[in-house]
Structure formats: structure tokens, C-alpha cells
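Morning F.,

Quick status update on the modeling queue. The single chain you submitted on Monday has been processed. Sequence for confirmation:
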Amino acid sequence: MPPKSRNAFLSTQPEPLRLHYLDYPPPPTSPSSSPKGTILLLHGYPQTSYQFRHVLEPLASHGYRLIVPDYRGAGFSSRPRDGYTKSVMASDIFTLLTEHLGIREKVHVVGHDIGGIIAHAYAARYPEHTASLTWGECPLPGTKAFEEVKNTPDMWHFTFHAQTDLPEALVAGRERIYLQHFFTCEAVNPTAISTEDLEHYTVQFAQAGAMRAGFDLYRAFPTDAEENRKWVEEKGKCKVPCLALSGAESPLKEIAGDMAAEMYEDFQVAEAAGSGHYVAEEAPEEFVRLVVEFVEKHPAG
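C-alpha cells below.
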């Protein structure tokens, strides 16, 4: 059964937002007659909800309903000029789930890359609505590790994306070349992103305002870092059970445990064998196995 593709029109701040999402119910033949819970999947950059195409059916087959949005500024969602701090983007997702979809029970939040930063903001601010959190493959703003790596050569794009107007001017008309650089350099198996997949992402990011919105994600990092540090200082570490998930061949695995320890009381670390940065695309079976093992330790009920 293909997922339902829908638009939600949300009365968010600082302006109304159109948020596109996929809604994938468990199949009739799943182990449970009704969903065991809801898994929220948050994609990274430069990607969209399409990132999870290989794992939707396998995850749903374990009895879970899947909600997979294109976050603010990405994919088929609208691209406002403001609102790219991850706390605001987490609020977008909370509004989608609770007000638009009417999901009141706790959900399992899974975030990759930028989606991982949003997932952290969600779990910290809405713990009463979060059964478990799986996040990874991102230096988390506000942690010591983020400060140590943000200006290193591997993170050159953090500085480039933060410049005003220049990235948009240089990348316009060259979106395919630019996106392919990340997929080629950060994947252990770059063929996991096929020519057709690259074309899909290129079409999405060549839309008016799409690259600007992507760069705005990085321009918000200083505010994200300040908010995350202040949140821990004032409210303490997040109590939501946390899995820090990395590709086994990704350099970001080296800082995953330290970042989780700074922000979470209850965490564990896992690595997906055979994967670089793009775990759900490079090693979808491992991604599904590790996510399901973790969420089933923390049932939403």
C-alpha cells in the first residue's frame, strides 16, 4: 500500500505554513490489528521525505503508522523567509501531529542530519509526546563536539551556507553538481543514491527558494546552539530514551556518544554496518533493524 501524500495548512508562527507529509499505515497483514504506535521520520539536508523510500514498507510491516514530513522549506512544503531555528521547526511538527492529525499519544521520533537536530528540539520541548528518540549523523548545536568540529575542513559547508546571499548566487543553475558532491563524498556506497534519485533531489532543490531555505537551516545554527545550551542549563538533560545512530563508516560516529551524554540522561549508541552518512539509503535493512529494536524497548503506551 503506497503512503498517502498530503498537505497540511498550519497556522504557525511567524506565518502560516504548508507542510507536506506522507502518512503510511501498517498493512492489514502486520502483527498487530491496530497500529502499535506512530514513528515520525525527519529527513536531512540535502534531502526530503524521499530519503526514507526504502524503509517505509519494512517499518510499517512491524505494526507502526509512519508520518514522514517534508520539514519547513523542503520538498513540497512551503519555503517561508523565516522560522528555521530548530525549535520553531519542531513546533511545526508538533502542530502537524497534534492539531492536524489529532495524534495525542506519544510518538517515536527518528531524525537524520538536520532532521536529527529538529528531533532533539522536539524531544526536549515535548517529552510528554515523545516515547523514544533516535537521532544521529549531525553535529548537534550547543554541544562541545559541535564547537570543536564546526570550523573543520569536513564541515566547510557550515561556513559557506551561513554567508548572506553568496551561496544562492553561486549555486543557482548548478544544483545538481552541488548536491551530487555531498552524496558522493559522504556516502560509503555512493551508488545508493542512483541517477534517478539525484534527479529527484535536484528537481526539488531547483525550485524557487529551495536552496535559500536549505542554507537558512545553517544560518540558524548559532541560535540553535544558544537555545540548546540554555535549555540544558535551565531544565536539565532530556529524559526521553535516546539512541544515537550513526553509519559505521561515518566519521560522525566518533562524537555521537559524547553529544548524547551532554544532552540525555538515558542513551545508547548504535552503528549501522555498511553505511556512511546516509544510513536509511545506504543500509536500509540495518536502519530498520536498529530503529525497530529500540522503539520496541520503549512502547508508546
